Structures are given as structure tokens and as C-alpha cells.
Amino acid sequence: MLDEFLSRAISGGLQTDLYHPDAAYVAWRSARIGITTFDLYTRRAPCDGAFLLVAGLEFALDFIREFRYEEKGLRYLTQVRDYDPKFVDYLRHIRFTGDVLAMPEGTVAFPGEPLIRVTAPFIEGLLIEAGLLQAINTSTWVATKAARTVLAANGRRVSEFAFRRAAAPFTVARSAYIGGCASTSFVAAAERFRIPATGTIPHALVQLFPDETEAFMAVAETYNRYTVLLDTYDVTNAISKVIKVAHDVEERLGHHLAAVRLDSGDLDAASRHVRHALDAANLYRTRIIASGDLDEFSIQTLVRADAPIDGFGVGTSLGVVTASSTNPGGLGGVYKAVHYVEDDGTSTPLIKLAENKTTWPGRKEVYRIGAFECDVVQLESEPPPLGSKRLLRPVILSGSVVSGSSPPLSEVREFAQQNLSELPEQYRHLSPTTEYSVVPSASLERLRSMAMDAHQPGATSTI
């Protein structure tokens, strides 16, 4: 299961790019289907930041566990490619039988270190690539974006309002909650994931009534704790009307004006005017919520200006992946083959050579030294560094999901927030000047150097 709409639309076996079954066919015909290890990692942190917050593992595990080709999918493949019927039958019976190690959801991670390590027969590991990347890329990007937004809010409540903008709304709601958003406006996601639901009123409801006061009165008389939207016409006039309605309805019905929302204009100036008016009317407990194309940078500006805003509703910037001048957008996760074992047991480290994209070969582990002193990436065969914590945990062994690999969402969120609270200040900045240290071990450095030398033009040596 990736996103609800996607999972209903297509079966697991077709959740690939076409070159995956094409490459699998070549490997099958060539009998090159030995045990292969793949690393999933990212070369840069989202949003030009220093860190990423791992999310989407539960979706990834669901996808791997359910991966198979249904007859309808196989019929389609035979229409677009002239595969050998024996290969089609091979796909008919394929299931994932390998091992997966992964950083738990909510882990603070960094570019250049494996987030997930897959070891399986080549074709099995290859065919899950696109679905695995789709699950992890989207979720981790949103969780990281949400974490940055919540950090920028500096203790003020952030709610996720992205449903109408998001291509994968269930994924966005779940991941934003992991990242620290307190609630979602998307009712189906709130019900499905047991996330607190939140909402105010739309401009259309205010416009429905001939006068703004009537609209505010209708809302106030309907709910014992209510929120109204102030900027349908004019904030200054609206707050005066709301205050009169609030006093009247509180006296008659005991209903309380919980919050007012500002959705456009100069939010700093408007919030100061509204706060002054509310306080002058003894409505000290009424909160001010701001929304309207906010992101972590605009929220940081409002917080640093000490605008009297109590919470933020954030939609587009969480639901739509954006690019910057230095970052093409999204997580940019990649999935690379790093180790291959022949049928006779011969072991070969695999490397891809490219400027600024040369990979690290071999089966690797990731260890964290102390409280974010540095992370060490080393070969599986090396002993753990002193004072370190292993970050990659077994989540699938021999094709079966390990018990406890998908904890309740509330526990994932709590784990994420604990991780973020321990992250040193210099890495929490929206535009950090300090890069976290991810250190390859000396043995890994040597293996990479040998692998690079073995692939130089004219080289005859083997590793």
C-alpha cells in the first residue's frame, strides 16, 4: 500500500517503471539472479536543510509484503513486451524472500547514509525499487518539511491543511503528523490514522449570509466552542462584529469564541490589531490562527517579529513538493546495487562511477556516535564503534516482516519528536551553515578505492 488512491488503482507487480521488468527479463535470460544488496539513500537533505526525518517505512513494508503479479497485470505485460512465457510464469510466482534493514520511522538521518538496505535475489530486489522509493521519498520529504515548519513555529501549534493540494493526501497527513503537526484537516486521514482533526469555516459560509454578523452568529449559536474566519471582506470590521457576537452568545448560551483565523494580507499587522481588539474586549483566551500559503520561512519571520499568532495552518507547502535554486525538490532518494553474490558464493562489491555520484560499495551498517557527534558508515563485517548506536534494524527477514517493525503512529511521532529534540541547534536551522558529519570507515574507503581502480580503463585487477 502506497497511497490509498494508488493502491486501489493498480496491483503491486505493476507498481514499477517499465525498465524494471525489462531488466529483470535480461537478468533471468542471463541467469544473473544471485543475491544482491541495494542501498536506499539520498544525496542531499530536503529543502536545503541539514537533516531528514525518516518516514514511510510502514507503507514500504506493506508494499513489499503484498508485492506480486496478478493475472490482469501479467496479461498487460505480455501486450507491451514479447516476454518468454516461462519468464511470465516466473513473475506469476515471484514473492519477496529477502531481508530488509531500515532506519525506524522517526529517525533523524543525514545525506549519504543508507536509510534502507535490501538483500535479495537480484530480480526481487530490483522489482521493488520504484515502489520502495515512492513510499520513502514522499513520506520522508513531507515529514522533514513538517519538522522544519514546526521548529520554525517555536512552540506554536501547526496544523496540516494540505488535502486539497496534495497528490498523495493520506501520505501527507500521516507524514506531517510524524513531523510534528498537531492535526489534519483531512477527515478520512484523521479517521484512518487516528490523527486529531481540525477545521474552521470557509469564506463561502460567510458569503452565504447577507451580512457578516449573521454568519458569525450562526456559527456561534451552533457550536459551544467555535472559530470564525475574519478576512472575507475586511478584518477591522469583522473583528468588531465578532466581538459583539461573542459577548452576546457567551451570555445567552455559554458558547465560547475559541479562535479567529486570518487567511490573507499582512498577517503580522492584522494579528496585532486583532489581538489588541480581543484583549480590550476581555477575550484573552481567544486564539489567533494564521494560514494562507505559509511555509517554514514565512512562519519563522512572523515568530521572530513576535506577531501575536497562536497557531498556523499549513497546506500547499506540505502537500506540494517545491524546488529551490540549489535543490531540485523532493527527497531525491536513490536505490543502488552495492554487492552481488554469484551462485558459487563468489562475492563482488558493486560500484557506480559518476562525477559527484560515485556510490559506496559493499554491505554496510550505519552507527551514531554519542548524541549526534557523527554517524559512521562501515562494512557489515566491522565491529561497531565504541559508544555507538546501530541505526539500521531488521524489518524483514527471509520475506517475513519482523514483529514490531510497524509501531503505532503515536509511538512513531513520539520517537520522531524525541529525536528532533536531541538534534543540536546548528542542524535545526532552516538554512544551516554546518554540515553534519557522516564518516566512512577506513575499510570502506579502501574497498571503494579498489572498486574504482578495478573499473578504470585498461584495468585487469579484480577485487
Features:
elongated; seven-stranded antiparallel β-sheet; 463 residues; alpha/beta; TIM Barrel; six-stranded parallel β-sheet
SSE order and pairing:
Layout: H1 4-9, H2 19-29, E1 35-42, E2 52-53, H3 57-66, H4 71-80, H5 85-93, E3 99-102, E4 108-109, E5 116-121, H6 122-127, H7 129-153, E6 157-160, H8 169-179, E7 183-184, H9 187-193, H10 203-208, H11 212-222, E8 225-229, H12 235-253, E9 256-262, H13 267-280, E10 287-290, H14 296-304, E11 311-314, H15 316-319, E12 333-341, E13 347-349, E14 364-369, E15 374-379, E16 388-390, E17 393-397, E18 400-401, H16 409-422, H17 425-428, E19 438-440, H18 442-454
Parallel strand pairs: 6-7, 6-11, 8-9, 9-10, 10-11, 15-19
Antiparallel strand pairs: 1-5, 1-12, 2-4, 3-5, 3-17, 12-13, 14-15, 14-16, 17-18
Helix pairs in contact: 3-7, 7-8, 7-14, 8-9, 8-16, 11-12, 12-13
